[in-house]
Every structure is written in C-alpha cells, then in structure tokens.
Specification:
Isopropylmalate Dehydrogenase; Rossmann fold; 10-stranded mixed β-sheet; two-stranded antiparallel ribbon; magnesium ion binding; isocitrate dehydrogenase (NAD+) activity; oxidoreductase; IsoPropMal-DH-like_dom; IsoCit/isopropylmalate_DH_CS
Length: 316
C-alpha cells in the first residue's frame, strides 16, 4: 500500500503528521512518502504543484491530504480542485456524526461552479456552472449505493436553475432504479432543516458548491469544522482530507485541532479495507475527547501534539 502524505499549508503541516502517525502505528508495513504541494511551493518556485508531484500522486494507492491555502490571486489555480479533476475524484464524501446526527453528505466533486471555466470582462467576471448528465448520474448512483436501506435526500435549486433540474431528474431516476427511498428539498430550505432536524437525514446528494456549503453548515451540529473529515473518491484514486482550511491565523501556534485529520485517516483505512483499524482510530478519538482532552477550539487547552499523543496511546 503506497500512501502519499501531503501536509499542504498552514495547520495542515501540524495536523497531518498526527494522522500519519496513527496510520503508521496501525500499518508500519505501508510505504509512506511525502509530496509537497500548495501555496508555500507556489511562493517559492512559482507553481503549486509540479509534474513530478502529480505523477507521485497518480501512483499512490491513497493520498492523505492536508489543508492548502488558495489566495485571491488570478494567477493561482486551486490545487485541490485541479487534483479532483486530474485524478477523477468525482465523489466527495462528508460524514457528520455525533449525538443525534448520523448524516453523510455526498457532493458532486468535479463539475458545477468549481468547473474551473472562468473569464474576466471589463467590469465583470464569469464562472461557468457545468452540470452534465454523465456526472449527475455517476454521483447519484454513488449516493444511492450509500443510502441502501435508508432515505436519500436530493438537494437542488431545480425550481430556478435548469442545470439543477437536470441534476434532479438524474438523481431521481438513479434512486428509483436502485430501489432507494428518496425525497427532494430545495437547498436553501434543506440547509435550515438539517440544522433544525438533523435526525431526519441519512444521506444527502447534491451539486458541488451546494454540498460544500451544506457540509460546512452541518459541522455546527457536532462541534465545528475541526471535527469533520472527508473523502474524495474516484474509480482509480482516493484522497482523504479534513474539511477545514489552512487557518493561517493559528498556524504555527500548536493549537490546531487534529481530529478531522485523524478521522480522514480513519476513512482512508476503511477505504483500504481495514474497517477494524478505522473503528480503532474513531474510538481512540472519541475516548480522548471523552476524557476531557480538547484543543482550544473546543474549549480545552490541549496542544495539537498532546492530543495526537493521547490518541496514539489509546491505539496501543
């Protein structure tokens, strides 16, 4: 098993080593190798990722990815958006779990407003929202498979956007073909209702930017972005990353919450077929939090390193 480790920028350089240590504790036999990408590399040599790094990521069986900074610079292209397309990572899986919440948001990952097709005109700028039938059916099938035995919620703005009407039609047809119970909600109402009645929801499938916003909002149900992992899944590649950003305001202070990175590592283990290891990481995280050890974002005083060491101790 070849695992590419990408710390990225900001707090990614602090939380990814914690997650990597957990993987190494459970699977010392795996081949771990670092890959540098991100804003730091861009500032140093003018490119956020090079051909050699891209080749290394393509050859990996899985990628453990930290947060990367995307500055508001027209010459800077988002690394993670580029990788999602290059590696064919069409499904973004974001579980939100806690007391009274067991929700998985399945977000289309390569189209929509993150299509990367943009241009500027005098006094305006345009971004093309791309929604295709192939992409919509592919993500709907993925979500329907996750929803077997549970309800699938389809989140769109199909009452206003023709592109969402296409997405809705494809999602409904795929859900019915899979024999999955489904419902539909407009995304604005869905964002509110998920926060008010989270127990109602099991699996939600939606388009790219709607899924990004919904999952960030849903993080408030379980303690914030520092706790949420994600998986980017394709037919041939898989990348696992915390939902949170690079948080440059706290980078280097040693107080970043590594839980989302640890849970991303657990998702990597599960994807690799080690469900027992994934459960062990989740249990170690929960037991550490349950013992009262928390980083400052959760009201505690633990450092990133101290929290990671406590989790490793519980892994044995």
């Amino acid at each position: 098993m070849k695992v590419a480790v990408v710390p990225g920028d900001g707090i990614g350089e602090e939380v990814v080593p914690v997650a990597e240590a957990a993987l190494r504790r459970l699977h010392p036999e795996w081949d771990y190798f670092p890959v540098e990408v991100g804003y730091g590399r861009w500032k140093r040599c003018g490119a956020a990722i090079g051909a050699e790094e891209l080749r290394a990521l393509r050859e990996a069986d899985a990628v453990l990815f930290g947060a990367v900074t995307t500055p508001p610079d027209p010459d800077y292209r988002s690394v993670i958006v580029m990788l999602r397309k290059d590696l064919g990572l069409y499904a973004n899986l974001r579980p939100v779990r806690g007391p009274g919440v067991d929700l998985t948001i399945v977000r289309e990952n390569t189209e929509g407003l993150y299509s990367g097709i943009e241009w500027e005109l005098p006094g305006s700028a345009c971004t093309l929202r791309v929604v295709t039938e192939v992409g919509s059916r592919r993500i709907a099938r993925f979500a329907a498979a996750r929803a077997k035995g549970r309800r699938l919620t389809i989140g769109t703005k199909a009452n206003v956007l023709k592109s969402d009407a296409l997405f809705r039609r494809c999602a409904v047809e795929e859900a019915e073909a899979a024999g999955v119970e489904w419902e539909e909600k407009y995304i604005d109402a869905l964002c509110l209702d998920v926060l008010m009645h989270p127990a109602h929801y099991a699996v939600v499938v939606t388009t790219n930017i709607f899924g990004d916003i919904l999952s960030d909002a849903a993080a408030s149900l379980v303690g914030g972005l520092g706790l949420l992992p994600s998986a980017n899944i394709g037919d041939d590649h898989a990348l696992f990353e915390p939902v949170h950003g690079s948080a440059p305001d706290i980078a280097g202070k040693g107080i970043a919450n590594p839980v989302a990175a640890l849970r991303s590592a657990a998702m990597l283990l599960d994807h690799a077929g080690d469900r027992e290891g994934a459960a062990a990481v989740e249990a170690a995280v929960e037991n550490t939090l349950g013992a009262g050890m928390k980083t400052p974002d959760l009201g505690g005083s633990a450092t990133t390193v101290a929290f990671g060491e406590a989790v490793l101790e519980r892994l044995g």
